[in-house]
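Late entry, written up from scratch paper. The run itself happened at the end of the previous shift, but nothing got recorded in the book at the time, so transcribing now.
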Amino acid sequence: MTGHTSPSENPRRIIVAGGGPAAHRFADAMHTRGLEGWHVTVLTEEAHLPYDRVTLSKALIEVDYDLTLGHASMWDHDALDLRTGERVVRINPDAKSVETASGNSYEYDALVVATGSNAARLPIPGAQHTHVYRTLEDVWAINEAITRLTEKLGRKVNAVTIGGGLLGLESAAGTERLGATPIVIDGASWLMATQLDEGAGQALGRLIKDKGFEIHGGVFPSEVLSDDDGQVTGVLMADGRIIDADIVIVAIGVRPRDELFRAAEGEEQVFTLGQRGGVVISDGCETEIPGIFAIGEVANFGGMCLGLVAPANTMAEIVADRLHGGQATFAGFDTATKLKLSGVDVASFGDAFARTEHSLEIVYADPARGVYQKIVTTDDAKTLLGGIFVGDATPYMSLRPLLGRELPAEPGAYLTAAGGGEAPETELPDDAILCSCNNVPAGSIRDAVNGCGSCEGNAPVRELGELKTCTRAGTQCGSCVPMLKKLLEGELKKSGIEVSKALCEHFSLSRQELFDAIRVLELDSFEDILAKYGTGAGCDICKPTIASILASQHSAYVLDAGRGTLQDTNDRALANMQKDGTYSVVPRIPGGEITPDKLVVIGTIAKKYGLYTKITGGQRIDMFGARLEQLPLIWGELIDAGMESGQAYGKSLRTVKSCVGSTWCRFGVLDSVAMAINLELRYRGLRSPHKLKMGVSGCARECAEARGKDVGVIATSEGWNLYVGGNGGANPAHAQLLAGGLDDETLVKYIDRYFMYYIRTADRLQRTARWQEELDGGLEHVRQVVVEDSLGIADELEAAMAKHVESYEDEWAATLQDPERLRRFRSFVNAPEQEDEAIVFVPERGQIRPATNEEKGGVLISSASIPVRGSED
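Output as recorded:
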């Protein structure tokens, strides 16, 4: 990269019209290739440095979020001149100059037009009261409007997004994260119709409806309704329906900003425009006038203009190459798409619609789960042509670089949702494109890791962040980062180099290393830990991880001393949030044993507060439908009756399931109920990398399904058999025998050691099954540590568990004793007594359930009909 140098005496002048991502990439590409003999002036109408529109949703949620592309220091180069607030309004090809709205004129030797596109507007009455989703100012305005309306109305804002494509769903997801009710209107019959076929679109619709989104498909809006003050009140649909709305965002696509290429009235049209706009370019990204190039969304190639970052970057690189004497050509648009929408994975690439003659479609669809996976191949089922994934997109990263190549396994092996396990391991060819945004092949990644000469001092790259900087892979949309990390680790292992286990970009230590460091130095706050071992402000990876570490080491109240801001949503509320914004209440029922009096209390509370009740798979009773402000009232009554939190919301011990055992069952060998109660009361509140479940069976008939649990205990005539590392879920695993014929004391001792060793050494969100598999030596290593004390830490592990047992305090009991802690449990900060009118129930089988979006129009039971303060009225 060229340093701070002065331009040559007579540099070639390049003018760039536009200052978006494509313009930035061109300037960066020129910078990288060397600016000796050049002077690049970038004219942008915006007031900001070029920023990343791909991650615009982050600025919607957090207005101070910095989206600036690259390093701002790049613009300090003497041969680079960025001029903000300077909009180009005219090209003079004969004079080889451009004019700006401020009246300035700039001469050029080469002109690169990267004006991008404008958000399409709705040609319907009331459209002037809508927002669009295109620039920083746009998303800031949406954030301000939702925040203001939430405070003014004292309820959730109805945020309608018109458009069910990529931008529309991104916008809707952003409004949901701002606390609004997301409503999507789309004229197509299914969402993302440009990228997804009907099966995938329907699966996506089902999944995001389950997330609380309201979808209206197959119908167009005809008017945006508002009151006399211009405040939006609803959207009138073409079929006569009115959809309630407080804010309307239009995200129906973009239109190329090609006005610089359109002749003024009375002038000759010298540039060729596409049928749907955009200036036509050659495969060298040049217009028909030599020296004038177009890149990004304004460029029309093959009859298309696309608002995707990958082709824009490729075009920018091609123009920089050509200006430096190269012959690079543009091969066409890569339309691959991957996003995570409110936790739902969606991916589409290649010939997703199987338009290739004689192509095959291999499909797995599970409408009930909202999962859809499709692979498109040639008619011999060998060459990959494309694919679509909704709900489970894990195979996408392995398949995307193999587009147009022969698959290393039969296609069905990649349909992971069908229950066939993980996608086959894939060794990417060097020329396979790993990062499509920046057109980075796998070979470039390998070269960087092994020392290619492109980095300073020919030093091999060893860290993910350094690799991203060196190769640009993973620096834009980020969808390729998992595969990038996998390739990095694979290459390092081949070289015999230990792979980095950094927790996140803010902590270079692994979770295990961080756990030990916090324990040894007795650190007890996130701020101290960050100052000692981290950088930056932390993120949603390290914050809850450190909160869990602090909780498992100190057993302190999880929301005190600033730890509340570190926690996930459920931990902050000490309850599991449900799909409609209400919460579930789960008192502890150790071993499934409960007295009639406590059953009566649970029944009385459920009836009093109008809660749905269900016996869970873990032998507990779950009560659903509680509003946030009701939680302290409900827990007050439960605790008065001698019950405590079941911690169904935490990464901690959930349940210890048991059969009836030898006390009643004629087949029982040992007292499984007594042991289950003992274990649950011992390990209750134990915070860990992931949730923990246990089971105790009184005989080999295994009625408690103990071998499906993280720790399973089964009675035999010789004593207890201890099984470890089992779990259900998407990747079920049977627990394996760790030790057999144990007495009560030894059993508990081994479980103490096992849990504490797991808590100290597992990665974040890693279940015991995966942890055991990844340990060097697997189960045998665990046996040596837990049973044989091969590391000499058995006493230390037991002491740590004893400390937890002695210091345990029920979180809800502690909450109720402190008025300051209770302040968290208010639906609206400015109106503590106000109810959330968006919560609506309908009766079903003698109880209630959340109303669907369609049912909310005819409310049968609203939250207002359920007492707020526990009154019997």
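The first helix runs from residue 21 to 33.
(Scratch paper discarded after transcription.)
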